[in-house]
Amino acid sequence: MLAIRRTAAAIAAVVVLGGCSMTDQGPGPGGRSDSRSQTAGAQSSGGSGSNRQEMRATQLAASGAIPSLGTTVFEPQQLPQFETTGTYVGQKVQELRGDLEDLKTQISDHNQRLQELRQRTRSAARGYHGNVGQINTRLQLGTTPGNPELVEMWNQARQRLGTVEQTVDDMNQLSNEVSSTTRLASYLLESVQAAYGLSGAVEKDHDQLAILEDSTNRTVVLIDRLANELSSDIARQNRYLQRERADLSTLSLAIKNGEFYGESLSNQAYGTPTPASSTGSSDRVGRDQPLVVIRFDQDNVDYEQPLYSAVRRVLDRRPEAGFDVVAVAPQGGQQSALGLSRARRQAERVLRALNEMGLPPSRVSLSATTSARANVNEVHVYVR
C-alpha cells in the first residue's frame, strides 16, 4: 500500500507524456491536453515501466554477476637434476640452473598471489551483489524513504565494493612485480644462449644448456601470459567498478526516496549526445512536446521515479539522446521575477536528480522562461 500511495502522489504532480520521447511534435490545441487525459497517460506509461522495473529487480536480485576474471593457473614445470661435469662451462650451467629455479619460484609466488586476489574479488563481489539484490527487492515491494535497514545494507555493499577496489590496487602492484620478473626472464634467456659461446665445454654441458634454454623459453612465455592475463583482469575490474559505482550512487538515491529505479543511467547513456540547440532550450516551451512535465503545486513533489523511467526508456531506444531541462514560471504580475527564480531552483533540483541517477552533465542543458500557459511553477524535460 505504501508503494501505491507514493506512486499515486507522483502521478498527480508529474506528467509523463507517452510517445513524445522519439519525436519533437508540437502540443495540441491550447498547448496541452486536459488534466484527465494527462493523468491517464501517466498511469499508462507508469504501468508498462513498472513491469519492466519489476523484471529488472528480479534479475538484479537473482544475479550473481561478478567481474569476469581469468582462470589460468601459471605454475612453471620443474627442472630435471643435472650431472656435474667438472668443467668451467659445467659450473656456469649450474649457476644458470639455480637462477632459473629462483625465477620459477618467483613466478609461483606471483601465481599464488594472483589466484588469492581473484578469489577475494569473487567473494567480495558475490557479497556485494547479494546486498544490492536484497535492497532492490525491498524497494520493489515498497518501503519507507531513507529506511535505516536499507542504508545499513547499502553501507555493507559499499564496503564490499571497496574490497574489490583494493584488490585492483593489489593487482596493479603485482603487475609491477611481474614486469620486473619478465625483464629478469629475458636477461636469463640471453645469458643461457651466450653460454654456448664459452670455451672448454664438453658435449654434456651443451646438452644441459639446451635443456636450460628450452625451459627458460617456456618460462618466458609463461610469465608473458601471466602479465597479459593480469592486465586483462585489471581492465575488466576497472570497467566493473566504474559500472557498479554508478549503480551504487543511483541506489543511494532510490533508498533516499524509498523507490526502485534500476541501474544507473550512465550505464545506458552511450554514443555521442545530440548537441543543444543554438537558439536555446527555453524556446521549446509551447513549441515542442516535452517528455516530462513536473508541476510544483505542492511542497513535496515525488517526481524522481517517473522521471527515471521516462529517461531510461528514451536511452534504451536512443542511446545518443540529450535532454533539455527548462524551468517554467507563470507569466505576468509583480511576482514574475521571483517565481522564475524559484522555478529555476526547482529545475536545478531536477537536474541534480538526473545526475544522481547517473545521467552525465554533458547530456543535459538547463534554462528558464515564463509562459502564459503555466498556472504554477513547472519543470519541462525535453529530448534532443
Distance between the termini: 37 Å
Low-confidence parts = 1-12, 18-64
The percent range for strand residues is 5-15%
Helix and strand content put the structural class at alpha+beta
Number of strands: 5
The CATH topology of the largest domain: 60s Ribosomal Protein L30, Chain: A
Question: What can you see in these coordinates?
Answer:
- By secondary structure, the protein is α+β, with helices and mostly antiparallel strands.
- It folds into two domains: 2-62 and 265-383, OmpA-like domain (60s Ribosomal Protein L30, Chain: A); 88-257, Glutathione S-transferase Yfyf (Class Pi), Chain A, domain 2 (Up-down Bundle).
- Helices cover 60% and strands 8% of the residues.
- The chain has a five-stranded mixed β-sheet with strand order 1-2-5-3-4.
- Helix 7 links the parallel strand 3 (323-330) and strand 4 (364-371).
- Helix 4 packs antiparallel against helix 5.
- Residues 1-12 and 18-64 have low confidence and may be disordered.
